[in-house]
Amino acid sequence: MMLIDLTRLTTHGMPVYPGDAPPQLVESVHFDEHQCVNHEFQGSMHVGTHMDGPMHMVKGGRKLCDMELDHFVGRGRLIDARGRVTLDVDLLDGKGVQAGDIVLFWTAWEEKFGDESYYGAFPVLTPALAEKLVEFQVKMIGLDSPSPDREPYTVHRILLQKEILILENLVNLNALESKNFEVTALPAKWDADSAPTRVIAKLLA
Hints:
The chain has helices at about 30-35, 125-135, 155-160, and strands at about 1-5, 25-30, 40, 50, 75-80, 85, 100-105, 125, 140-145, 165-170, 180-185, 195-205. By secondary structure, the protein is mainly β. It has one domain (about 1-205): Glucose Oxidase, domain 1 (3-Layer(bba) Sandwich). The protein is globular and about 60 Å long.
């Protein structure tokens, strides 16, 4: 069994979406003084690799902590969207996307992380593509970029209204090229709209 970690490391002061507070992740208890170590974290649910839940953009939407566990595991489908500025429905042609799939869009945008451009002109999904994903009844989408769209966040709302979850800031999608795989994306069980998430792909024969 081979596992691929698709999760970006969360660090103190790492870059965040414009308007969010940079995370504070500090060692607050030191071994030399207390014979143990503790860390404190302060930051948004949308720092680093995380999952957007329905409540994030839908009035009355569910929190991730209230969703069924099987919503967080599914067959993965990798969509090669490298070089695309706009991700449209043609990207799904011949990809065999089915109900319950977790669809990951590989844009290679992760290479820009740490540069000002990462949160600038990132690729976006069209509303038509979002509607097609709803039609296919996928469980979740994920991207190696900060967001599937920009204000007014139409794509977010189309997906989250149907409880299609959104993974943002993924890494290592290149390792899934031409592979069959299953995705496990487990959000922290916090009483919140969204949550930091450890995302793992298991390669299948």
